[in-house]
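Reproducibility note. Readers wishing to regenerate the assembly model reported in the main text can use the exact inputs given here. Chain order matters: entities are listed in the order in which they were concatenated for prediction.
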Amino acid sequence: MNVGVILLVLTLLLSFTGYLLPDDQLGFWAVTVGTNMARATPLLGHEGPFGQQLGMTPYNDVRFGLLGAPSWTPTRSFAPTSGLHWHSHHRFHFYGPALLARP
Amino acid sequence: MAGPETDSAKPKPDAAKTSAAVAEMLPGMLVRLPSVHPRQRRLAVWRPSVRAERNQSEAASAGMGNGHRISWRVFIAFLRFFLPRTLFEPPPFSRLVTPQTTLWEWTPVQQKYRIWVTARPIACSSSTRAARISVARPIGKPARTSSSALARQRLRQRRRQLRRTRAAPMDRAHVELAPDGQIIVDTSRLYQWPRDNPATSVIRDHFCRCNWERRESVPRVREIAAVRAATERGADDARRENAERKEWQIRWPVERLKAGVKEDLESLRQTACKKPRNKSNFLKSPPRRRLHLDFRHKHDDTPRNRALGVLSNVFLHLHPAKINRDAVRYATPGHGGITFYLFIVLTLTGVMLMFYYHPSKVQAFRDVLYLEHDVPFGKLLRNMHRWAAHLMVIAVELHMFRVFLTGSYKKPREFN
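Running the prediction on these inputs yields the following C-alpha coordinates for the assembly.
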Protein backbone atom coordinates (compact mmCIF):
# COMPACT_ATOMS: atom_id res chain seq x y z
CA MET A 1 0.00 0.00 0.00
CA ASN A 2 1.11 3.47 -0.77
CA VAL A 3 2.51 5.44 2.15
CA GLY A 4 1.54 8.68 0.46
CA VAL A 5 -2.08 7.58 0.13
CA ILE A 6 -2.13 6.65 3.82
CA LEU A 7 -0.80 10.10 4.61
CA LEU A 8 -3.46 11.70 2.47
CA VAL A 9 -6.22 9.80 4.24
CA LEU A 10 -4.70 10.69 7.61
CA THR A 11 -4.63 14.36 6.65
CA LEU A 12 -8.26 14.30 5.65
CA LEU A 13 -9.18 12.50 8.89
CA LEU A 14 -7.21 15.04 10.92
CA SER A 15 -8.85 17.99 9.24
CA PHE A 16 -12.30 16.46 9.70
CA THR A 17 -11.85 15.76 13.40
CA GLY A 18 -10.34 19.19 13.92
CA TYR A 19 -13.36 20.66 12.21
CA LEU A 20 -15.60 18.96 14.74
CA LEU A 21 -13.72 20.10 17.82
CA PRO A 22 -15.14 23.63 18.39
CA ASP A 23 -18.64 22.10 18.65
CA ASP A 24 -20.25 25.11 17.04
CA GLN A 25 -23.06 24.78 14.54
CA LEU A 26 -20.71 23.86 11.70
CA GLY A 27 -19.07 21.16 13.77
CA PHE A 28 -22.36 19.84 15.08
CA TRP A 29 -23.86 19.39 11.64
CA ALA A 30 -20.60 17.97 10.31
CA VAL A 31 -20.81 15.32 13.02
CA THR A 32 -24.41 14.65 12.10
CA VAL A 33 -23.61 14.25 8.43
CA GLY A 34 -20.55 12.14 9.18
CA THR A 35 -22.34 9.75 11.50
CA ASN A 36 -25.21 9.39 9.05
CA MET A 37 -22.78 8.57 6.30
CA ALA A 38 -21.09 6.03 8.53
CA ARG A 39 -24.46 4.44 9.29
CA ALA A 40 -25.23 4.04 5.64
CA THR A 41 -22.05 2.04 5.03
CA PRO A 42 -23.15 -1.22 3.41
CA LEU A 43 -21.53 -3.83 5.65
CA LEU A 44 -20.53 -1.83 8.72
CA GLY A 45 -23.57 0.36 9.33
CA HIS A 46 -26.68 -0.61 11.19
CA GLU A 47 -28.33 -1.71 7.98
CA GLY A 48 -25.67 -4.30 7.29
CA PRO A 49 -25.66 -7.90 8.50
CA PHE A 50 -25.22 -8.32 12.29
CA GLY A 51 -25.64 -4.60 12.72
CA GLN A 52 -28.01 -5.01 15.60
CA GLN A 53 -25.94 -7.72 17.23
CA LEU A 54 -22.81 -5.57 17.05
CA GLY A 55 -24.60 -2.75 18.77
CA MET A 56 -24.86 -0.48 15.79
CA THR A 57 -28.32 0.91 16.03
CA PRO A 58 -29.59 4.08 14.40
CA TYR A 59 -29.94 5.53 17.88
CA ASN A 60 -26.53 5.20 19.35
CA ASP A 61 -24.28 8.07 18.58
CA VAL A 62 -20.58 8.32 18.08
CA ARG A 63 -20.30 12.06 18.17
CA PHE A 64 -19.32 12.18 21.85
CA GLY A 65 -16.65 9.66 21.13
CA LEU A 66 -15.38 11.76 18.28
CA LEU A 67 -15.31 14.79 20.53
CA GLY A 68 -13.73 12.91 23.38
CA ALA A 69 -10.70 11.75 21.44
CA PRO A 70 -9.60 15.02 19.91
CA SER A 71 -7.86 13.70 16.83
CA TRP A 72 -4.91 12.26 18.69
CA THR A 73 -4.91 8.84 17.10
CA PRO A 74 -4.35 10.14 13.56
CA THR A 75 -1.87 12.69 14.85
CA ARG A 76 0.21 10.03 16.51
CA SER A 77 0.23 7.86 13.44
CA PHE A 78 1.01 10.83 11.23
CA ALA A 79 4.53 11.43 12.45
CA PRO A 80 6.06 7.96 11.82
CA THR A 81 4.24 7.62 8.53
CA SER A 82 5.50 10.94 7.27
CA GLY A 83 8.95 9.95 8.45
CA LEU A 84 8.74 6.83 6.31
CA HIS A 85 7.53 8.93 3.41
CA TRP A 86 10.40 11.33 3.80
CA HIS A 87 12.87 8.48 4.07
CA SER A 88 11.65 6.93 0.86
CA HIS A 89 11.86 10.30 -0.87
CA HIS A 90 15.40 10.53 0.34
CA ARG A 91 16.17 7.11 -1.02
CA PHE A 92 15.17 7.91 -4.58
CA HIS A 93 16.65 11.32 -5.00
CA PHE A 94 14.90 12.76 -7.97
CA TYR A 95 11.28 12.89 -8.93
CA GLY A 96 9.54 11.29 -11.85
CA PRO A 97 9.42 7.81 -13.29
CA ALA A 98 12.74 6.06 -13.38
CA LEU A 99 12.51 4.46 -16.80
CA LEU A 100 11.83 7.30 -19.15
CA ALA A 101 13.34 7.51 -22.61
CA ARG A 102 15.66 10.43 -22.76
CA PRO A 103 15.72 12.68 -25.81
CA MET B 1 -30.42 -12.14 -34.37
CA ALA B 2 -32.06 -8.74 -34.12
CA GLY B 3 -35.71 -8.26 -34.31
CA PRO B 4 -37.40 -6.16 -36.95
CA GLU B 5 -37.90 -3.34 -34.44
CA THR B 6 -34.18 -2.63 -34.22
CA ASP B 7 -33.26 -2.99 -37.84
CA SER B 8 -33.41 0.74 -38.52
CA ALA B 9 -30.16 1.22 -36.58
CA LYS B 10 -28.57 -1.99 -37.77
CA PRO B 11 -26.43 -1.72 -40.90
CA LYS B 12 -25.83 -4.42 -43.44
CA PRO B 13 -22.79 -6.56 -42.78
CA ASP B 14 -20.92 -5.47 -45.90
CA ALA B 15 -17.30 -4.79 -45.21
CA ALA B 16 -17.31 -1.37 -46.86
CA LYS B 17 -20.52 -0.20 -45.32
CA THR B 18 -19.81 -1.52 -41.83
CA SER B 19 -17.05 0.91 -40.95
CA ALA B 20 -19.03 3.86 -42.25
CA ALA B 21 -22.04 2.77 -40.27
CA VAL B 22 -19.94 2.34 -37.14
CA ALA B 23 -18.42 5.76 -37.65
CA GLU B 24 -21.86 7.18 -38.03
CA MET B 25 -23.27 5.57 -34.96
CA LEU B 26 -20.44 5.69 -32.47
CA PRO B 27 -20.30 9.33 -31.29
CA GLY B 28 -23.23 9.39 -28.97
CA MET B 29 -25.39 6.36 -29.21
CA LEU B 30 -25.22 3.00 -27.60
CA VAL B 31 -26.07 0.63 -30.40
CA ARG B 32 -25.67 -3.00 -31.07
CA LEU B 33 -22.66 -3.47 -33.28
CA PRO B 34 -23.12 -5.33 -36.56
CA SER B 35 -21.89 -8.87 -36.77
CA VAL B 36 -18.20 -8.47 -37.40
CA HIS B 37 -15.23 -10.44 -36.33
CA PRO B 38 -14.74 -10.03 -32.57
CA ARG B 39 -11.24 -8.70 -33.04
CA GLN B 40 -12.49 -5.99 -35.35
CA ARG B 41 -15.27 -5.17 -32.97
CA ARG B 42 -12.84 -4.75 -30.14
CA LEU B 43 -10.74 -2.47 -32.30
CA ALA B 44 -13.72 -0.36 -33.16
CA VAL B 45 -14.74 0.02 -29.57
CA TRP B 46 -11.42 0.26 -27.79
CA ARG B 47 -9.27 2.41 -29.97
CA PRO B 48 -9.66 5.96 -28.73
CA SER B 49 -7.43 7.41 -31.44
CA VAL B 50 -9.47 5.92 -34.26
CA ARG B 51 -12.60 7.02 -32.59
CA ALA B 52 -11.35 10.55 -32.00
CA GLU B 53 -10.24 10.86 -35.60
CA ARG B 54 -13.59 9.71 -36.78
CA ASN B 55 -15.33 12.13 -34.48
CA GLN B 56 -13.18 14.97 -35.64
CA SER B 57 -13.63 14.26 -39.32
CA GLU B 58 -17.32 13.92 -38.85
CA ALA B 59 -17.52 17.11 -36.83
CA ALA B 60 -15.48 18.96 -39.45
CA SER B 61 -17.74 17.72 -42.23
CA ALA B 62 -20.78 18.73 -40.25
CA GLY B 63 -19.32 22.15 -39.51
CA MET B 64 -19.19 21.70 -35.73
CA GLY B 65 -16.34 22.23 -33.32
CA ASN B 66 -14.14 19.40 -32.13
CA GLY B 67 -15.76 17.12 -29.65
CA HIS B 68 -13.81 17.20 -26.40
CA ARG B 69 -14.06 14.05 -24.41
CA ILE B 70 -11.83 12.34 -21.92
CA SER B 71 -10.41 9.25 -23.49
CA TRP B 72 -10.66 5.86 -21.89
CA ARG B 73 -6.97 5.63 -21.32
CA VAL B 74 -6.75 8.83 -19.33
CA PHE B 75 -9.64 7.74 -17.19
CA ILE B 76 -8.18 4.31 -16.58
CA ALA B 77 -4.79 5.82 -15.83
CA PHE B 78 -6.45 8.01 -13.23
CA LEU B 79 -8.22 5.01 -11.71
CA ARG B 80 -5.01 3.03 -11.69
CA PHE B 81 -3.41 5.76 -9.66
CA PHE B 82 -5.45 4.74 -6.63
CA LEU B 83 -4.82 1.02 -6.92
CA PRO B 84 -1.65 -0.96 -6.24
CA ARG B 85 0.45 -0.86 -9.31
CA THR B 86 1.34 -4.52 -9.15
CA LEU B 87 -2.15 -5.35 -10.35
CA PHE B 88 -1.45 -3.91 -13.77
CA GLU B 89 2.20 -4.58 -14.28
CA PRO B 90 3.85 -7.52 -15.91
CA PRO B 91 6.71 -8.85 -13.80
CA PRO B 92 9.64 -6.48 -14.08
CA PHE B 93 12.11 -9.32 -14.22
CA SER B 94 12.91 -10.20 -17.80
CA ARG B 95 15.43 -12.46 -19.44
CA LEU B 96 16.89 -11.41 -22.74
CA VAL B 97 18.77 -13.32 -25.36
CA THR B 98 22.44 -13.99 -25.11
CA PRO B 99 24.62 -11.21 -26.45
CA GLN B 100 26.30 -13.67 -28.81
CA THR B 101 23.21 -14.07 -30.93
CA THR B 102 23.05 -12.50 -34.33
CA LEU B 103 22.29 -8.90 -34.89
CA TRP B 104 18.81 -9.54 -36.22
CA GLU B 105 17.62 -11.21 -33.07
CA TRP B 106 19.48 -8.83 -30.86
CA THR B 107 18.36 -5.48 -32.20
CA PRO B 108 14.68 -5.49 -31.18
CA VAL B 109 15.73 -6.44 -27.69
CA GLN B 110 18.13 -3.55 -27.64
CA GLN B 111 15.44 -1.23 -28.82
CA LYS B 112 13.07 -2.43 -26.19
CA TYR B 113 15.42 -2.30 -23.24
CA ARG B 114 17.87 0.27 -24.60
CA ILE B 115 20.86 -1.97 -24.14
CA TRP B 116 24.05 -2.06 -26.06
CA VAL B 117 27.01 -4.37 -25.94
CA THR B 118 30.09 -2.25 -26.30
CA ALA B 119 32.48 -5.05 -27.07
CA ARG B 120 31.87 -8.55 -28.22
CA PRO B 121 34.30 -11.39 -27.78
CA ILE B 122 36.76 -11.23 -30.64
CA ALA B 123 37.22 -14.95 -31.02
CA CYS B 124 35.14 -17.53 -29.31
CA SER B 125 38.10 -19.82 -28.80
CA SER B 126 40.21 -17.38 -26.86
CA SER B 127 39.19 -17.50 -23.26
CA THR B 128 41.18 -14.45 -22.27
CA ARG B 129 38.83 -12.03 -23.96
CA ALA B 130 35.81 -11.29 -21.85
CA ALA B 131 32.44 -10.33 -23.16
CA ARG B 132 31.89 -6.95 -21.67
CA ILE B 133 28.27 -6.19 -21.37
CA SER B 134 27.44 -2.64 -20.70
CA VAL B 135 24.34 -0.67 -21.03
CA ALA B 136 24.44 2.49 -23.02
CA ARG B 137 22.00 5.08 -24.09
CA PRO B 138 21.62 5.00 -27.85
CA ILE B 139 21.57 8.43 -29.43
CA GLY B 140 18.33 9.39 -31.06
CA LYS B 141 15.98 6.88 -32.54
CA PRO B 142 16.91 3.23 -32.63
CA ALA B 143 17.46 1.70 -36.01
CA ARG B 144 14.68 -0.21 -37.63
CA THR B 145 15.11 -3.84 -38.42
CA SER B 146 14.30 -4.74 -41.96
CA SER B 147 15.95 -6.98 -44.43
CA SER B 148 16.70 -4.42 -47.10
CA ALA B 149 20.31 -3.68 -47.92
CA LEU B 150 19.95 0.02 -47.18
CA ALA B 151 18.54 -0.67 -43.76
CA ARG B 152 21.32 -3.12 -43.10
CA GLN B 153 23.88 -0.50 -44.06
CA ARG B 154 22.21 2.06 -41.85
CA LEU B 155 22.24 -0.42 -39.02
CA ARG B 156 25.94 -1.02 -39.52
CA GLN B 157 26.61 2.71 -39.41
CA ARG B 158 24.55 2.99 -36.31
CA ARG B 159 26.42 0.17 -34.67
CA ARG B 160 29.69 1.87 -35.42
CA GLN B 161 28.35 5.09 -34.01
CA LEU B 162 27.08 3.39 -30.90
CA ARG B 163 30.33 1.63 -30.30
CA ARG B 164 31.92 5.02 -29.86
CA THR B 165 29.43 6.15 -27.22
CA ARG B 166 30.53 5.89 -23.67
CA ALA B 167 28.68 3.35 -21.62
CA ALA B 168 26.41 4.71 -18.95
CA PRO B 169 24.12 2.93 -16.55
CA MET B 170 20.74 2.47 -18.14
CA ASP B 171 18.27 4.52 -16.21
CA ARG B 172 19.30 2.84 -12.98
CA ALA B 173 17.73 -0.54 -13.80
CA HIS B 174 19.51 -3.61 -12.57
CA VAL B 175 21.23 -5.62 -15.30
CA GLU B 176 22.96 -8.91 -14.72
CA LEU B 177 24.42 -11.76 -16.65
CA ALA B 178 22.88 -15.10 -15.80
CA PRO B 179 25.03 -18.23 -15.55
CA ASP B 180 23.53 -19.51 -18.78
CA GLY B 181 24.66 -16.42 -20.62
CA GLN B 182 21.41 -14.55 -20.77
CA ILE B 183 21.06 -10.93 -19.79
CA ILE B 184 18.61 -10.27 -16.99
CA VAL B 185 17.03 -6.85 -16.73
CA ASP B 186 15.19 -6.16 -13.51
CA THR B 187 13.45 -2.82 -13.55
CA SER B 188 12.18 -3.18 -10.02
CA ARG B 189 15.67 -3.16 -8.61
CA LEU B 190 17.88 -0.15 -8.83
CA TYR B 191 21.26 -0.30 -10.40
CA GLN B 192 23.74 -0.90 -7.64
CA TRP B 193 27.21 0.46 -7.69
CA PRO B 194 29.37 -2.59 -8.26
CA ARG B 195 31.00 -3.97 -5.17
CA ASP B 196 34.20 -5.88 -5.12
CA ASN B 197 32.59 -9.23 -4.64
CA PRO B 198 33.64 -11.49 -7.48
CA ALA B 199 30.54 -13.64 -7.27
CA THR B 200 27.91 -10.99 -7.79
CA SER B 201 28.00 -9.61 -11.26
CA VAL B 202 30.02 -9.76 -14.41
CA ILE B 203 29.50 -6.16 -15.36
CA ARG B 204 30.50 -4.81 -11.99
CA ASP B 205 33.83 -3.36 -12.98
CA HIS B 206 32.80 -1.79 -16.19
CA PHE B 207 31.70 1.55 -14.82
CA CYS B 208 34.50 1.65 -12.36
CA ARG B 209 37.15 3.65 -14.11
CA CYS B 210 39.93 3.23 -11.61
CA ASN B 211 39.70 -0.53 -11.79
CA TRP B 212 40.25 -0.39 -15.50
CA GLU B 213 43.65 -1.98 -15.56
CA ARG B 214 42.69 -4.98 -13.48
CA ARG B 215 39.27 -5.32 -14.95
CA GLU B 216 39.77 -8.72 -16.44
CA SER B 217 40.78 -10.55 -13.36
CA VAL B 218 41.51 -14.22 -13.39
CA PRO B 219 38.38 -15.57 -11.73
CA ARG B 220 36.12 -13.49 -13.87
CA VAL B 221 37.75 -14.64 -17.04
CA ARG B 222 37.21 -18.15 -15.83
CA GLU B 223 33.63 -17.34 -15.00
CA ILE B 224 32.99 -16.06 -18.48
CA ALA B 225 34.79 -18.99 -20.01
CA ALA B 226 32.52 -21.24 -18.01
CA VAL B 227 29.51 -19.34 -19.27
CA ARG B 228 30.63 -19.68 -22.83
CA ALA B 229 31.38 -23.32 -22.30
CA ALA B 230 27.88 -23.82 -21.00
CA THR B 231 26.42 -22.29 -24.12
CA GLU B 232 28.79 -23.68 -26.72
CA ARG B 233 30.37 -26.90 -25.57
CA GLY B 234 28.85 -29.86 -23.85
CA ALA B 235 27.43 -30.07 -20.38
CA ASP B 236 30.35 -32.06 -18.93
CA ASP B 237 32.84 -29.37 -19.75
CA ALA B 238 30.50 -26.82 -18.34
CA ARG B 239 30.17 -28.74 -15.12
CA ARG B 240 33.92 -29.05 -14.77
CA GLU B 241 34.42 -25.37 -15.46
CA ASN B 242 31.72 -24.56 -13.00
CA ALA B 243 33.42 -26.52 -10.27
CA GLU B 244 36.67 -24.75 -11.02
CA ARG B 245 34.94 -21.43 -10.96
CA LYS B 246 33.37 -22.19 -7.61
CA GLU B 247 36.71 -23.12 -6.20
CA TRP B 248 38.11 -19.85 -7.48
CA GLN B 249 35.26 -17.95 -5.98
CA ILE B 250 36.23 -19.28 -2.61
CA ARG B 251 39.92 -18.76 -3.14
CA TRP B 252 39.69 -15.36 -4.71
CA PRO B 253 39.18 -13.18 -1.62
CA VAL B 254 42.02 -14.94 0.13
CA GLU B 255 44.30 -14.39 -2.82
CA ARG B 256 43.25 -10.81 -3.03
CA LEU B 257 43.80 -10.27 0.67
CA LYS B 258 47.26 -11.77 0.36
CA ALA B 259 48.05 -9.49 -2.55
CA GLY B 260 46.72 -6.53 -0.60
CA VAL B 261 48.88 -7.29 2.41
CA LYS B 262 51.85 -7.61 0.11
CA GLU B 263 51.10 -4.27 -1.48
CA ASP B 264 50.64 -2.67 1.89
CA LEU B 265 54.00 -3.93 2.98
CA GLU B 266 55.54 -2.64 -0.23
CA SER B 267 54.02 0.77 0.18
CA LEU B 268 55.06 0.86 3.81
CA ARG B 269 58.59 0.04 2.83
CA GLN B 270 58.60 2.75 0.20
CA THR B 271 57.08 5.40 2.42
CA ALA B 272 59.45 4.54 5.22
CA CYS B 273 62.39 5.15 2.92
CA LYS B 274 61.02 8.46 1.74
CA LYS B 275 60.79 11.68 3.69
CA PRO B 276 57.71 11.91 5.88
CA ARG B 277 55.02 13.79 4.05
CA ASN B 278 53.27 16.72 5.55
CA LYS B 279 49.61 16.55 6.36
CA SER B 280 48.17 18.13 3.21
CA ASN B 281 50.01 15.70 1.01
CA PHE B 282 48.72 12.87 3.10
CA LEU B 283 45.18 14.10 2.66
CA LYS B 284 45.60 14.59 -1.05
CA SER B 285 46.76 11.06 -1.72
CA PRO B 286 46.12 8.81 1.22
CA PRO B 287 47.76 5.41 1.21
CA ARG B 288 45.56 2.62 -0.01
CA ARG B 289 43.92 0.39 2.51
CA ARG B 290 43.60 -2.93 0.87
CA LEU B 291 41.38 -4.46 3.49
CA HIS B 292 38.54 -2.24 2.46
CA LEU B 293 38.32 -3.96 -0.88
CA ASP B 294 36.86 -7.08 0.58
CA PHE B 295 34.47 -5.60 3.10
CA ARG B 296 33.12 -2.49 1.48
CA HIS B 297 33.39 -0.84 -1.86
CA LYS B 298 36.06 1.70 -2.44
CA HIS B 299 35.23 5.35 -2.54
CA ASP B 300 36.55 6.04 -6.00
CA ASP B 301 36.88 9.59 -7.09
CA THR B 302 34.26 9.43 -9.80
CA PRO B 303 31.58 12.04 -10.52
CA ARG B 304 28.93 9.58 -9.45
CA ASN B 305 30.51 8.88 -6.12
CA ARG B 306 31.07 12.56 -5.48
CA ALA B 307 27.41 13.20 -6.24
CA LEU B 308 26.42 10.32 -3.97
CA GLY B 309 28.50 11.77 -1.18
CA VAL B 310 26.48 14.94 -1.40
CA LEU B 311 23.13 13.31 -1.99
CA SER B 312 23.35 10.80 0.81
CA ASN B 313 23.90 13.54 3.34
CA VAL B 314 20.71 15.01 4.72
CA PHE B 315 22.04 18.54 5.04
CA LEU B 316 24.09 18.69 1.87
CA HIS B 317 21.41 17.26 -0.39
CA LEU B 318 19.04 20.15 0.28
CA HIS B 319 21.21 22.55 -1.69
CA PRO B 320 23.61 20.46 -3.72
CA ALA B 321 26.25 21.99 -5.94
CA LYS B 322 25.60 19.42 -8.63
CA ILE B 323 22.47 17.43 -9.25
CA ASN B 324 21.27 14.66 -11.44
CA ARG B 325 20.02 15.57 -14.86
CA ASP B 326 16.68 13.96 -14.07
CA ALA B 327 16.20 16.26 -11.13
CA VAL B 328 16.15 19.38 -13.29
CA ARG B 329 13.51 18.13 -15.65
CA TYR B 330 10.74 18.90 -13.23
CA ALA B 331 10.78 21.98 -11.07
CA THR B 332 8.47 20.92 -8.27
CA PRO B 333 6.89 23.57 -6.07
CA GLY B 334 7.84 21.57 -2.98
CA HIS B 335 4.38 20.80 -1.73
CA GLY B 336 5.75 18.07 0.51
CA GLY B 337 7.98 20.56 2.30
CA ILE B 338 5.09 23.01 2.59
CA THR B 339 2.97 20.24 4.08
CA PHE B 340 5.67 19.37 6.56
CA TYR B 341 6.05 23.02 7.60
CA LEU B 342 2.29 23.35 8.04
CA PHE B 343 2.24 20.17 10.09
CA ILE B 344 4.88 21.60 12.42
CA VAL B 345 2.84 24.81 12.74
CA LEU B 346 -0.28 22.76 13.43
CA THR B 347 1.41 20.71 16.11
CA LEU B 348 2.82 23.74 17.93
CA THR B 349 -0.38 25.76 17.85
CA GLY B 350 -2.43 22.66 18.64
CA VAL B 351 -0.41 21.95 21.77
CA MET B 352 -0.88 25.56 22.83
CA LEU B 353 -4.61 25.37 22.14
CA MET B 354 -4.94 22.25 24.23
CA PHE B 355 -4.22 24.27 27.37
CA TYR B 356 -7.50 26.08 26.88
CA TYR B 357 -9.70 23.34 25.52
CA HIS B 358 -11.71 20.65 27.27
CA PRO B 359 -13.02 17.94 24.99
CA SER B 360 -16.51 17.56 26.40
CA LYS B 361 -19.94 18.40 25.19
CA VAL B 362 -20.45 21.00 27.90
CA GLN B 363 -17.13 22.74 27.78
CA ALA B 364 -16.01 22.65 24.15
CA PHE B 365 -17.90 25.56 22.68
CA ARG B 366 -17.46 27.69 25.81
CA ASP B 367 -13.72 27.16 25.65
CA VAL B 368 -13.67 28.28 22.05
CA LEU B 369 -15.61 31.42 22.91
CA TYR B 370 -13.32 32.13 25.83
CA LEU B 371 -10.29 31.61 23.59
CA GLU B 372 -11.65 33.91 20.93
CA HIS B 373 -12.68 36.79 23.16
CA ASP B 374 -10.78 36.75 26.42
CA VAL B 375 -7.45 35.02 26.00
CA PRO B 376 -4.72 37.39 24.77
CA PHE B 377 -3.71 36.43 21.21
CA GLY B 378 -6.21 33.59 21.45
CA LYS B 379 -7.92 34.57 18.26
CA LEU B 380 -4.59 34.70 16.45
CA LEU B 381 -3.65 31.29 17.82
CA ARG B 382 -6.90 29.67 16.81
CA ASN B 383 -6.89 31.22 13.36
CA MET B 384 -3.30 30.14 12.81
CA HIS B 385 -4.35 26.59 13.60
CA ARG B 386 -7.41 26.81 11.43
CA TRP B 387 -5.76 28.31 8.38
CA ALA B 388 -2.78 26.01 8.63
CA ALA B 389 -5.18 23.06 8.60
CA HIS B 390 -7.00 24.34 5.52
CA LEU B 391 -3.76 25.08 3.71
CA MET B 392 -2.39 21.67 4.62
CA VAL B 393 -5.31 19.90 2.98
CA ILE B 394 -4.84 22.04 -0.13
CA ALA B 395 -1.10 21.44 -0.20
CA VAL B 396 -1.52 17.70 0.20
CA GLU B 397 -3.94 17.52 -2.68
CA LEU B 398 -1.74 19.64 -4.90
CA HIS B 399 1.14 17.37 -3.97
CA MET B 400 -0.85 14.35 -5.03
CA PHE B 401 -1.71 16.05 -8.30
CA ARG B 402 1.96 16.81 -8.93
CA VAL B 403 2.87 13.19 -8.21
CA PHE B 404 0.28 12.09 -10.70
CA LEU B 405 1.53 14.51 -13.36
CA THR B 406 5.18 13.56 -13.06
CA GLY B 407 4.39 9.87 -12.73
CA SER B 408 6.31 9.58 -9.49
CA TYR B 409 4.07 6.77 -8.32
CA LYS B 410 5.64 4.42 -10.83
CA LYS B 411 8.39 1.97 -10.17
CA PRO B 412 10.55 2.03 -8.13
CA ARG B 413 8.58 4.51 -6.04
CA GLU B 414 5.31 2.59 -5.86
CA PHE B 415 5.42 2.33 -2.07
CA ASN B 416 6.42 5.92 -1.34
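We highlight two features of this model. Residues 7 and 79 of chain A are 10 Å apart (CA to CA). Helices of chain A lie at 3-20, 25-39, 63-68, 72-91.
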